[in-house]
TrEMBL record:
Taxonomic superkingdom: Bacteria
Protein's recorded name: Uncharacterized protein
Record organism: Laspinema olomoucense D3b
Length: 249
């Protein structure tokens, strides 16, 4: 089946499965729930890859049997593997934010502080990014945290200029970010005869991805024995990334 013809809401998660495992699933307890799940699409691996989305997933190395892929909340044609979804989507929102600032005529965007918490209430880090890149207050080795640490930029610089309000609004609409108050208010404050020149704000990088990950909240995968523990771990320990950011126009 061509993935491009399937509505995005019906493929919020994609389970890549072999033809043999599909047959096995049909005769496995709890298999029927997975087969009838309205938000999880079972992508059966065949020799022929159809459609631009499937080709994109294949070229990204994601079409491996037994992989569970999560839809990017900002782009329904983009996916990440379950183990990288939290950090990948958090970084995606951060880069959308810096793009927005550029469209609004910013000269500089600086991340002053990052706070990382888990759903268990455990705080992994809270502090300035200077200490983050040195050592930071990190409780143990954490793969998701390391993904953020290695890819988050402390400072982004632009030439500056007048705000392109129409392009900024279009950017939020295109990437499903109109409900983010911090980003929407930044557009509003760049309007009029006396636009804002600097702003310090707190930006949640995880609000939208938490909603996306709810698709696996009741998911049971009675095949691929190593996958269900990953699902259970993702359900138990989700991440909240919060940034304190200064923007100069």
């Amino acid at each position: 089946m061509n993935l491009d013809t399937i509505q995005p809401r019906k493929r919020r998660a994609i389970l890549v499965i072999s033809p043999d495992e599909l047959t096995r699933l049909e005769y496995t307890p709890q298999g029927n729930d997975l087969l009838l799940n309205e938000q999880v699409h079972l992508l059966v691996i065949t020799d022929k890859v159809e459609g631009s989305l499937a080709n994109k997933l294949e070229s990204s190395g994601l079409l491996e049997s037994g992989s569970l892929l999560i839809q990017n909340p900002y782009d329904p044609s983009d996916y990440a593997s379950l183990d990288k979804a939290s950090s990948t989507f958090a970084l995606a929102k951060y880069f959308h934010f810096t793009t927005l600032c550029g469209l609004l005529g910013a000269r500089e965007v600086t991340v002053e502080q990052i706070e990382v918490k888990t759903s268990k209430g455990k705080q992994l880090f809270r502090g300035s990014l200077d200490s983050l890149y040195a050592q930071g207050n990190i409780e143990g080795k954490n793969k998701t945290f390391e993904e953020m640490r290695n890819n988050l930029k402390i400072k982004s610089s632009f030439d500056g200029g007048p705000p392109d309000l129409e392009a900024a609004d279009l950017h939020l609409r295109q990437y499903n970010l109109l409900n983010d108050i911090a980003m929407k208010s930044l557009i509003d404050q760049r309007k009029g005869s006396n636009p804002i020149k600097s702003r310090e704000l707190t930006l949640s990088l995880s609000e939208e991805s938490r909603k996306t990950l709810k698709v696996i909240s009741d998911l049971k995968i009675p095949i691929y024995g190593d996958l269900q523990p990953q699902v259970e771990q993702a359900k138990k320990e989700t991440y909240e990334f919060t940034l304190t950011i200064k923007v100069y126009f």
